[in-house]
Amino acid sequence: MKEYNITRKEFIRSSALSFAGLTLTPTLMNAQSDSRNQTANSIKTKKRYTLKNVRLETGFEYEDGEVIATRTRLFTVEIEDGKIKKISPNNNDTNAIDAKGMLMLPSFKDMHIHLDKTFYGDKWQAVKRRRGGVKGMIALEQQMLPEMLKSSTYKAEKMIELLQSQGSSFARSHVNIEPTSKLKSLENLQKALEHKKDVFGAELVAFPQHGVFYTDSVSYMKEAAKTNIDFIGGLDPYSIDGAIEKTMDFTVQLALDNQKGIDIHLHETGESGLKTVEYLIDKVQENPELKGKTYLSHCFVLGRLDKAKQEEISEKLANAQIGIISTIPFGGLIMPIPTLTKHGVKVMTGNDSIVDHWNTFGTGSVLYKTNLAAQLYGQVTEFGLSRMLKLATAGPTPLDDKGVQQWPKAGDAADVVLVEAGCSAEVVSRMSPVRSLIYKGNIVF
């Protein structure tokens, strides 16, 4: 896969026109999603129903050994008790919901977002000039959080609706655990998720945004770890807490003691960033129960390594089954996603911020992130574009690399989108409109 040495500004400038309609102010984004999500609290909860004229991918077409097209056919799909019960040759005469030839794909997943603290659903606010780096932002948050907490449940619900409007039925959300909000941010987000439980799924990361020791978040992290969260989070152990080993040992032990996964925000790009990655790899190898449950979010240091070191670290990450969650282009960094995936590292993506005091460029669409990645890494062929879909779905694709149909199958969860497109490659390239979202068999819109 070809890599291009361009800056994020240059890249986004060149591709912004293709997505201008979704880079909107909160007011406009709300208007965009409200019409689709009017039924979010009154969804169609039939335990059993059938869809006809559903387009599914069935294989690749080849010419001189190259994939030149994707074969599709229309099918009838029966859904019962939240699962796909049966897939049959299309019967247009059956009494069923008409999918009108739209393409069915696995629903999308946003695997790195902060649902608990956002301006979304309120008036527009641009980011204020940053002072003092991440520690300066911590000081700003300490001032802002008490007021933000007053409406955080409502705003989380509005942001969930935005994600749904872009085809996502699931998110991994980091949630602040620190002395200012204590566990209040977690409690407020859990209320929002309870309200949306029939239409949206989530897993939560207890995130010490203000450092584990920098603001003495230890007792709050321990308390959060005993709740039904899924991951223990972390933040730049060297630059925030001043010690890689002390912070990482605490994080790893807390995860082990409470049978949780790990998801670390790592922004550091120098020697400390690399040491943190290598230290985490060693800790996971020492505790194999953490394999497949440990992730590094951002991990910008990978974009600063030379090619040989990228290959070495990618192989070590794969052996430890540590995944990378990337927001794709960021600043002047181009993450080595093709190298990571070549070695078998699981790579996922997310919006991170939608509109808050950190960033205002979030769209709510992981399909947009997937399109950016395809452009950035030169994936322009039918095969290459179709493979990129896994970034939006966090893994599953209708066809495997050999063109064998692997999704959907009877027994799969009925978490699907219906998209106005002919195949996965078109969806990624054209960012095709999502016309319907189904979660656990519930028709969201």
From TrEMBL:
Every Amidohydrolase domain range: 217-445
Matching Gene3D superfamilies: Metal-dependent hydrolases, Urease, subunit C, domain 1
Q: Which residues form a coiled coil?
A: none
Question: Superkingdom of this entry's organism?
Answer: Bacteria
Pfam families in UniProt: Amidohydro_3
Q: What PANTHER family does the record tag this protein with?
A: BLL3847 PROTEIN (PTHR32027:SF9), CYTOSINE DEAMINASE (PTHR32027)
UniProt protein name: Amidohydrolase
What is the species of this protein?
A: Zhouia spongiae
